[in-house]
Amino acid sequence: MSVSFSVPPNRISVEYPSQESHLLHPGGQRLPGAYVNLAGNCLNLRKLSDIAVMWRDEGDDESPVNKMTFEKLRSEVWYA
Questions:
Q1: Smallest Cα–Cα separation from 55: which of 71, 66, 64, 63?
Q2: Environment class of residue 14 by beta-carbon count within 10 Å: exposed (0-12), middle (13-18) or buried (19+)?
Q3: CA 20 to 30 Å from 69, out of 21, 35, 40, 54?
Q4: How many CA atoms lie within 13 A of 9 on its CB side?
């Protein structure tokens, strides 16, 4: 899936035998210790020239459709 981890997982899966842990993590915990920047991964998986967002000004159905590429969206997100 080409997911980049900021901090890689310690292992793939951990089973927890206690009842309390089972309630918090039914079936165990997946990718324990991992940290993933979801926004960063979403913005890196596309071609920069692809359209990321399309919108029209609210309340004006006749206004033109605005478009933003992944390149522009990435620069706006990473600028903040």
A1: 66
A2: middle
A3: 35
A4: 11
